[in-house]
Amino acid sequence: xxxxxxxxxxxxxxxxxxxxxxxxxxxxxxxxxxxxxxxxxxxxxxxxxxxxxxxxxxxxxxxxxxxxxxxxxxxxxxxxxxxxxxxxxxxxxxxxxxxxxxxxxxxxxxxxxxxxxxxxxxxxxxxxxxxxxxxxxxxxxxxxxxxxxxxxxxxxxxxxxxxxxxxxx
Length: 169
Prior knowledge:
five-stranded parallel β-sheet, 14% strand, alpha/beta
């Protein structure tokens, strides 16, 4: 009798036992992206992970239910950290995977821009970069420009993985 009364009081107070928990898929009505990515990485190899952020933006928008074409997406990547070395022609063999991926995205309409001041700090001139790279005067003014044009700023956070996924599930 006591457990019946506890259950009855719980029902009256809205404390009923929850039904089976389950997530729910929601297709947010996304508009075509207008995004500027800021790449300012502390190690050139991290550009591979940063490029996954570009992919993570593009792939869902090109798939159902959105089905946007690459031409619908306006994406700019501003490079001004150690990853500058990955787009110097002389380093192509060392960073071939990243260069190939950036060239693929550039062919889809993604603009890759290198900070001219940072390039100078690294000892590079415009002629030293891959043909899909545009050198701009300054990363900060470039980022401000695109944000003033209504582009959302995304700054990839590339963390060093110190724990495996399986052990924290």
